[in-house]
Amino acid sequence: MYFIELLVKYLKKDRLMEILDQHDEKNALNPLEQIPEEENYEACEHIFMPVDSTGETLACSKCGLVVQKKDLRYKNFFMNKSL
């Protein structure tokens, strides 16, 4: 009796794997299609966050633009004396 149960389980397993493979092929997701890439980073409203623990390298959370903290210049109207 035990051998018959093992045989049935083995045959069901093969059929189940075929069904799962067919399902995966139909519903496979392409990650490049799911994530909209922003080609023009100049049009992005950047939100920079630190990449590492030192905080010297920053990356935009929306478009992925990577900049150095010293190269990034924030527009601070308090620092501009000509206004």
Give the topology string: H per helix, E per strand.
HHEEE
- Mean pLDDT across residues: 75
> What proportion of the residues form beta strands (DSSP E)?
5-15%
Structural class of the secondary structure composition?
alpha+beta
Q: How can the largest sheet be summarized?
A: 3 strands, antiparallel
Quaternary: single chain
Number of domains in the coordinates?
1
Care to describe what's here?
With 83 residues, this protein is α+β, with helices and mostly antiparallel strands. The chain is 35% helix and 12% strand. The chain contains two helices and three strands. The longest helix is centred in the first third of the chain and has 25 residues, at 2-26. It starts with a helix and ends in a 15-residue tail after the last strand.
List keywords for this structure.
single chain, 83 residues, alpha+beta, three-stranded antiparallel beta sheet, 2 helices, 35% helix, 12% strand
Topology readout:
Blueprint: H1 2-26, H2 31-34, E1 48-50, E2 57-60, E3 66-68
Antiparallel strand pairs: 1-2, 2-3
Short description:
This protein is an alpha+beta fold and 83 residues long.
